[in-house]
Structure formats: C-alpha cells, structure tokens
Amino acid sequence: MKRILAILLPIVALSSCISGEFFKLQGGHFAEIEAKKLLYIPESYEAIETTVDSALLSAYNDPTILANASEIVDLNNRTLFLDKQSRQKIEKYKKNIKSRLAELNEGEFFGWEIRHRFRAKDNDGRADILDMLFISDKGFNENLFTASLDVEEQGDYSEIIDCIDRVIADVDFENELEEFTNDLNEAINEVINEVKEIDFNEIAKEVEEATKEVKQEVKKAVEEVKKMDKDAIKESVQSATDTGKELAETAIYEATKIIEEATNEITSKPINEATSKPTPSTPAKKRTSQTSYSDDYFEYETNTNTIDSNTLLELNGL
Hints:
Blueprint (H helix, E strand, L loop, with lengths): L1 H36 L8 E11 L6 H16 L5 H20 L5 E13 L5 E11 L5 E6 L8 H12 L4 H24 L3 H28 L2 H38 L3 H4 L15 E6 L2 E6 L5 H7 L3
Antiparallel strand pairs: 1-2, 2-3, 3-4, 5-6
C-alpha cells in the first residue's frame, strides 16, 4: 500500500502542476482578448502578469449581483444629487441584488476569476499599467463580468464590493447621500467663516511696512554710491577703455596679416589655374563660394571662380 501511495502522490502532484499551468495559459489568452477590446490602441498591449483562480459562487463574484451593484455605483458617481428617475433605478437594482442573494447557491463552481496586469498606451500615446478582473465561464468562452482593480479609478472593484455590503446591510442610499451633502455644506461654511475672520487691514499694514524697509535699503545703497570717489571711477573706466582699444588693435593687425598671407598665396599661382574649368570630380552644378576681405570695416564679397589677381591687389591696397 505504501509503495502504491509513493508512486501515486508524485503523479497526482505532477498532473496538478500541469493542469494549473494549462488553466493559467487559457486564462491569460482569454484576458488578452478581453483587454484588447477595452483599449484605444490594441496593438500597444503587452502582458505582464496573470493569476487564475476557481470562481466559487458568492455575493462578491456572482455576475448578476456584480452587474447591478456596478450600475448603482455608476449612478452615484455621475452626480451629487440624484433625481427621481435615478433613485427609482437604484431601488430596482437593490431589489435585483436582494432577490439574487436569496437564491444564491454559495460555493458552487461556475467559472474562473482572472486577475490580469498589462501595459498599454492611452489615446494620447502614453504607456500605462492596468489591472483588470475578468470573470469567465468554465470553458473560458464567455466573459461574465469585467472590473478595474485600480482603486484610484471610479467604479473599480472595491467600490462595487462596498456597494454590495451596503445593500446587504440595507443602507438607505438616499439618506446616506443627503448626510454626505450636509457634511460637505458644513465644511464649506467653516472655510467661509475662517476667511471672514482674516484681518485684511493687518495684512495691508505688514505689506506697507515691508515696502518701507525695501525703500530704505535702496536709499542706503544710493548714498553709498554717491560717497564713492568719482575720480577713481573715471580712472577705472578709462583704464578699461584703453585695454579694450589695445585688444581691438591687436585683433585687427592679426586679421590683416592673415589676409595678406592668403592674398600672396593666391597671386603666386598662374591666373589660368584659378579660372580653369571644373575637373571630372567637381559637381556639374556651379558652386559659388564667397570670400570677404576687410580693412577698417570695408567688406567686399566676390566669386572666386571669376576674380583676377589685379582685383585682389587693389582690394588689399597693394
């Protein structure tokens, strides 16, 4: 007997692992199909993680109860004040939930709960990570219910569960909303009263005093400048001017020297070489290069393909 058990237990464990992986693959494929139906850009879909659990019937995973609770949550999220028609709809959904709860066969296996995390782009092209719940039938053929698992999103799964709890506890949604509105009005009135208590005249006085202090500091700075030795200031300015002139003259001298060297190099070549036709390696399209010669702010632009040596000499005063 012990030998039989020793043989059977590994087989059972192995088959359990294989079946678990199979259902995970099936659930992942099912979730991918359903997720892409919800996306603005389906081709941006990228799976991250999937968990698959057996769906055993309860008040919190029954598709009928979830669908009616989702409708109540949606109506409450749309507006702060419910009109008569909306209140009637909520009462109808509450009756549907209670009716279904009375006939619920809890613990019955009816399908699969698939929690799926994936990455996708929104309508603006920004990548985002989403968490979704899909409840499928036993054969992964039909999607019985879908909800977001993102708690920051309106109408997510946690809000739906909370709604079911309130229906079971027979909470009056209309009175609850009225209490919330009253609390909100009280909070607004408190803020208004606090604003009324603010002494704006006192604030104005503080601003005026700060302005006076700034003016005094500016006046002190002006007086300090007036006390400075004017002759020393003039001497510093003159010294800076002389230094600037020396630098400018040096730069002009160096530039003139470079131009003279370039001119000597060009005029030393035969004229026919400077005006010869393009070689085969030169592009057929005419290329016009411009060269500028400057002497005491005198500028001259010319085409190097047509200039002669005499013109160059004239330009540089040679």
